[in-house]
């Protein structure tokens, strides 16, 4: 009889430890560095989803710094996704388009981001952010690729670099109607963030818009000497709304699952300082791209009918912040990553 009482008490003691331990794990989960990264968005985060037949990111000289050949990244090397994965201590997640070719890489998460896309349909035929999230949900609910436990130890990166606005003006949108359209874009972005978190992803990081007026496509008008502040004012309105959306989502959730990666401030800081305070690199002419078409009719990577290069490339990509008219070099992204360090601490 005594033995049975001891066993009975021991059973409940162990049970209480398990329950307490489990609650402690759940409570402490917010202080554990994520082990998986899921990525949604556009070319600032794309590592190979855009169709090979259509994107210059699959053509030389893209990828010459890393991995030494074109890999679908819109840069000479690594992009934002790669640096965020590095911070987490995981391999850069495999692009969704290539998931069946490297099943062992699924353990690090997955990248759904595709160049040229936005929250709405843009000027490319690639999937918008809603469809990217649909594909993610299918992997969870139908294909059972990721479990609830996987998602609880994950981070989502959501990149929105401005393609919705390029499409807006290309379709005849007016400057007068821009503010209303920005509100529509950010409202849809808010729904996307909430949905990703609702699928079980523990932490969701969303980027602010970079200073669009400082991209070489805009600064070319001043021979790459000054930013277009009219564009940057519109960007500031977008970014204020993003900050408000994130604050609202966090107020509605119990665990402050959402946070902002401020690309506007990090880009501006690096461009203003020419990179000097953030590392050993120095960008002498930070607004000028390394790879340029020989005229405005051509882009980096363009070839003529005979295979001749219709672009020029700078001698040292590490000396340039921008790679082409829209995207940073690997050195540029690295300097932005250094400037984002304080924001990244919120991941824990």
Automatic annotation (TrEMBL):
State any single GO MF term: hydrolase activity, acting on ester bonds
Identify the stretch annotated as signal peptide in this record.
1-24
Coiled-coil spans in chain: none
Which UniProt keyword terms apply here?
Hydrolase, Lipid degradation, Lipid metabolism, Signal
The reply on keyword Cell cycle is no
User: In its UniProt record, which GO terms are filed under biological process?
Assistant: lipid catabolic process
Q: Which Gene3D superfamilies match?
A: SGNH hydrolase
Domain of life, per UniProt, equals Eukaryota
Nucleotide-binding in keyword set: no
Membrane-spanning parts = none
* Family that this chain belongs to: Belongs to the 'GDSL' lipolytic enzyme family.
What this protein is called in its record is: GDSL esterase/lipase
């Amino acid at each position: 009889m005594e033995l049975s009482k001891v066993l009975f008490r021991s059973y409940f003691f162990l049970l209480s430890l398990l329950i307490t331990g489990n609650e402690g794990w759940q409570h402490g989960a917010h202080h554990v560095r994520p082990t998986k990264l899921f990525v949604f968005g556009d070319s600032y985060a794309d590592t190979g989803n855009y169709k090979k037949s259509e994107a210059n990111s699959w053509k030389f000289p893209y990828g010459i710094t890393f991995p030494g050949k074109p890999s679908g990244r819109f840069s000479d090397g690594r992009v934002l996704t790669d640096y965020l994965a590095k911070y987490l201590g995981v391999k850069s997640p495999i692009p969704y388009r290539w998931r069946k070719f490297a099943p062992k890489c699924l353990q690090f998460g997955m990248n759904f981001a595709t160049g040229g896309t936005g929250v709405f349909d843009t000027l490319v035929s690639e999937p918008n952010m809603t469809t990217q999230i649909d594909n993610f949900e299918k992997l969870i609910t139908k294909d059972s690729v990721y479990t609830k436990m996987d998602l609880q130890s994950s981070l989502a990166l959501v990149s929105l670099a401005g393609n919705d606005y390029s499409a807006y003006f290309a379709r005849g949108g007016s400057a007068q109607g821009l503010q209303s359209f920005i509100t529509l874009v950010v409202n849809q972005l808010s729904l996307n963030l909430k949905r990703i978190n609702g699928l079980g992803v523990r932490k969701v990081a969303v980027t602010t818009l970079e200073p669009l007026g400082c991209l070489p496509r805009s600064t070319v008008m001043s021979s790459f000497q000054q930013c277009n502040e009219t564009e940057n004012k519109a960007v500031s309105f977008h970014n204020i709304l993003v900050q408000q959306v994130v604050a609202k989502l966090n107020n509605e959730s119990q665990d402050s699952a959402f946070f902002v990666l401020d690309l506007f401030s990090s880009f501006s800081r690096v461009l203003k300082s020419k990179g000097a305070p953030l590392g050993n690199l120095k960008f002498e002419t930070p607004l000028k791209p390394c790879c340029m078409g020989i005229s405005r009719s051509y882009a980096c990577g363009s070839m003529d009918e005979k295979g001749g290069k219709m672009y020029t490339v700078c001698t040292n990509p590490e000396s340039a912040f921008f790679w082409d008219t829209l995207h940073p070099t690997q050195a540029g992204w690295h300097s932005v990553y250094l400037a984002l360090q304080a924001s990244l601490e919120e991941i824990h």
